[in-house]
Specification:
5-stranded antiparallel beta sheet, single chain, extended, alpha+beta, 2 domains, SH3 type barrels
Length: 177
Amino acid sequence: ITLLFTATDCAWSNGMIERLNQTLVNNMRCLINAPGERKKWHTIITEVVDTYNETLHSVTGFAPAYLLFGKYINLCPIDICEQDLQEDRKRAYENSVRCFWKNKQRIDRNKKNEELNIGDEVFVDVGNKLNKAKLDEVRTGPFKIIKKISPLMYKIDSNNRSHLSNIIHKNKMLIAK
């Protein structure tokens, strides 16, 4: 198992999980606000997760319940639908990798490749842009980078500011000149 670090308040550092959460919330919203009886979210979460797991995914081409547990949702007679779980898992992985690289190329087209190093001083974006007053500061700092966790994640010396996380995504930093 590989330990991954993600920055707080930075959805793109953990995109797959954020996308899953968005899908589950949208599905729950539809069921909660359906005409008729209004339901509480905790009474429908199991139904929403099961529906999600039994739905064919556009990237892998398979339902998660099938890939994880071999649970096949019969949409056609079993003798017509040939299934080989190991082969299907391999195809799903290849489909995911292909989609990843396609999306990476699209995203990297407009990306600035500015290198950050240990010891560099940076300003850090402050909070959520939607929930602040017009004249609040946009960035705070400068702070010194003390560790490079990955090409996109850095640990900074936040000078014991309790409101600021020590692990920051590269997109939330600006080099102090």
